[in-house]
Amino acid sequence: MQTASELYFIGLDIGTSSAKAVAFRTDGTIVDQSSAAYDLQQPEPDAAVQDADTVLQATLDSLRQLRKKLDREPAAIGLSSAMHSLLAIDRSGRPVSKLITWADGRARPYAEQLRGTETGKFIYRHSGTPIHAMTPLCKLAWMRRQHPDIFSRAEYFVGIKDYLLHHCFGQWLIDHSLASATGLFDLRRRQWIPEALEYTQIKADRLPEAVPVHRVLQDLRKTVAEDLGLAPDTPWVIGASDGCLANLGAGILDGQEAVLTIGTSGAIRMTVNEAVYDPEERLFCYILDEERYVIGGPTNNGGVVWEWFCEQFYPEQPMDGVFDRVSRVPPGAEGLLFLPYLYGERAPVWDASAKGHFWGIEAHHSRDHFARAVLEGICLNLFQITEALETVGGTIERIHANGGFTQSPVWVQILADVMGKEIVIGASPQASAWGAAIMAMESTGHTAAPKAQTRNEVFAPDADRHRVYRELFKQFKGIYPSAKVS
């Protein structure tokens, strides 16, 4: 019989651009991993879609390749997935639409019409999901009006993880965590919201069965088991959404701490013990498990904005060199401000039509001032989300950061100075997969015992620089309303 330290648990994470299969020991040590990438297609303006079967096969391929590397069967597999995807399925179980991802903005007019109405406010209070084009709620309204042929042919409307589960087990299931990010699911009652179904004009039987995140499946289809090199009775745990599992994987379950990510996009999230909602509808509240919730706000404009700026203004300069130049510019970029809404924005304004702006340009400003203003603008926007988060979830004492931006000490220090809080670099780069593996352990009678973080770098805020940014923040908050009016 294997000891706990000899067991492998796999976290299978279906992301927007790739699928990752990561094998962990119970202490969080990575045994091995595999990944497979896929493209995001943009066949028309505002579209962001994928071929569902391509994503499915890439996910299975990552798991198959990982299994070949392991010397024994995994004790269990836990699932993680990106949120807000929508796929129309016909009676035979085949897709009749592309997989519509969270980044697809074609439902924008329907979100704008619904947001602010009594129906929209009711749905937000019960679902915890802000009314936005990203949600399946609004995508269904768009599909019904713009593609009635697909809408009428569809027997089911599902997400990508649901499609994987049907392929593997022949059941249409969705976990409570992903269901809570659809805009269709009641956080407290754990059931589909009748008013949301009425708005989309579908019945609950066209959606997967919503089940708890610790649900264990052990009847893997024989052909799938043989293809993957797994035993048919290998426990699969349905798991949760990638954002919620990132908090679990980072070990941030204390309400006084938060997890902040800046990759292509960004988000800040904290874990709480009861469902809460923001009266101003700036934040999400999603289910983590039977007892915990994750509240926070996502931004479209993270590293993608910095990459755009560097490509346009520093095409010849290595990234490290740009950061070095930024470090020589005073905090506040000598009065130059940047609103980073190049790709519309989710939290805190939830305006898919929002635009980016430079504010306060003077003749003495160099491109290095613009560079610092861009980094500060991204951080000030996250500070604005954090401010909203603290009004609902309480004071945040410390922020645990992950994502590509943590490779730049200059950027992390700017974030610490803007936030006025310690920024800790130490969260696992595979936090969502590790969170899925933890959930697999919990669901099969095992306990995760994470080892101490090997990297635990702390960036402390500078009080003087934070005062500069507090004053700057007052101006920053006024840019979006002014720009929107103009």
From TrEMBL:
InterPro entries: ATPase_NBD (IPR043129), Carb_kinase_FGGY (IPR000577), Carb_kinase_FGGY_CS (IPR018483), FGGY_C (IPR018485), FGGY_Carb_Kinase (IPR050406), FGGY_N (IPR018484). PROSITE patterns: FGGY_KINASES_1, FGGY_KINASES_2. GO terms for molecular function: kinase activity; phosphotransferase activity, alcohol group as acceptor. It holds the Pfam family FGGY_C. One of its GO terms (biological process) is carbohydrate metabolic process. Residues 8-249 form the Carbohydrate kinase FGGY N-terminal domain. Residues 259-441 form the Carbohydrate kinase FGGY C-terminal domain. It comes from the Bacteria. Keywords: Kinase, Transferase. Belongs to the FGGY kinase family. This is Gluconate kinase. It comes from Flavilitoribacter nigricans (strain ATCC 23147 / DSM 23189 / NBRC 102662 / NCIMB 1420 / SS-2) (Lewinella nigricans). The lineage of its organism: Bacteria, Pseudomonadati, Bacteroidota, Saprospiria, Saprospirales.
